[in-house]
Amino acid sequence: MKKLLLSTAITIMFASGAFADVGHAKKETTDASEMIVGMPGHSEKVDRTIDVILLENDDGEMLIQSEEMNIKQGETIRFKITNEGELEHEFVLDTVERNAEHKIEMAKMDMEHDDPNRIRLDAGASGEVVWTFANAGTFEAACLIPGHYESGMHRKVAVGDQMAQADVDYTTGKIKKIDAKAGKVTIIHGPLVNLDMPAMTMVFRADEAMIAKMSEGQDIEFVADRVKGKLTVTQLK
Ligand SMILES: [Cu+2]
User: Fold this and answer.
1) Where does the signal sequence lie (predicted)?
2) Which of 173, 205, 213, 217 has the most neighbouring CB atoms within 10 Å?
């Protein structure tokens, strides 16, 4: 980070005009080899492909859907990204902090970035980002188009073995109602950290096997996630 700020400062210092345009700070990520999140990967050296879908759903949420992004340090991933939504979206890999900074920049001026860690896709378009995750840590895939991040377009990218299980946080809850026919359960639950949701009563999807283990009034510990855009009970104990 320090390095990046320094190189930006130098660029500004050596800019020919005395009044360098601050808006050009977007050039800071051009040297992608300096990025904390890793570096552009080589297409011939891909270890694994992760399919990613960008879309909006009927609940007004915007989503980045994929399998859990648990990545080994040093792995090169081909993200095959399809925009199945009706709006333009993007897919940016970076640290949470840098995404937050860029989000503020984007809010001021919705500029087109052309960095190897990001791709912008029109509705119906698809593309890919090949990325080598050189460093362990928790990163983020996000869409930084104004308002989209807040509508749900961000996803944790965990790099390194110790991160693999960090996602499983059980939440306590009480089953209020079961609608087995519709595959729905109403749960009075504590905060769902992975979904950024406070404690409340909500309806979740659950499959038949899961519902078979449930009864109304039961105290449970569970994990919920978005499956195809719907809040779903994925684990129960
Ligand atoms: Cu978006």
Assistant:
1) 1-20
2) 173
